[in-house]
Write a structure and sequence with these properties.
The complex is a heterodimer of chains A (108) and B (122). Chain A has 108 residues and is mainly β. Chain A is 0% helix and 58% strand. In chain A, strands 2, 4, 5, 6, 8, 9 and 10 form a 7-stranded mixed β-sheet that branches. In chain A, strand 4 and strand 5 form a beta hairpin. Chain B has 122 residues and is an all-beta fold. In chain B, a hairpin with a 6-residue loop joins strand 4 and strand 5. The radius of gyration of chain B is 14 Å and the shape is globular. The chains are: A mainly beta (108), B mainly beta (122). Chains A and B meet through strand 5, strand 8 and strand 9 of A and strand 5 and strand 10 of B.
Chain lengths: 108, 122
Amino acid sequence: EIVLTQSPGTLSLSPGERATLSCRASQSVSSSYLAWYQQKPGQAPRLLIYGASSRATGIPDRFSGSGSGTDFTLTISRLEPEDFAVYYCQQYGSSLFTFGGGTKVEIK
Amino acid sequence: QVTLRESGPALVKPTQTLTLTCTFSGFSLSTSGMCVSWIRQPPGKALEWLARIDWDDDKYYSTSLKTRLTISKDTSKNQVVLTMTNMDPVDTATYYCARSRIEGATIYFDYWGQGTLVTVSS
């Protein structure tokens, strides 16, 4: 089973700053099967990125995804107040899904 | 408009069996490529995928929990049911159902229910 490790655990930034979130897999993941989600307190996760770099419907272009193999990145170019949340990466392989442990982006 | 809604008991006792129902609308689980999964999240912790059922009735389970889980569907009622046996306090979590579609070489969770909190306590 593929393990996803997200870093850092917490990212303290100010609105307007750039956020770079990392997701590292224990073995190679097909880029087609790597997704990112945003979760705010008391809400269900929301799909941001699928196929490692494709934005989901309605997601602003300040969100971008990149990477391949075992290293993937979610970048938020300029943080808006509504972007402070927890972010999860997720992969699919061998008919199973796994999620990373999450990165919390908090206001500095 | 796609919606999913989880229902089930808010409180179960240790050793009991949990039964959760996901009622959905806006798509059919008999359509090729459609799938519904159950995912849980203990308070303050990360998401954990539990099980998935596909349009063709194929079923997949988390490796660590597969002996305790059963997933099934009732296409006519637009429902997916998850049972989890031998509940323990560590199973206390918000349980979500989510839709995914197998589209070519990609699959992801595009719609989620709001979740239902299940507490395991005597």
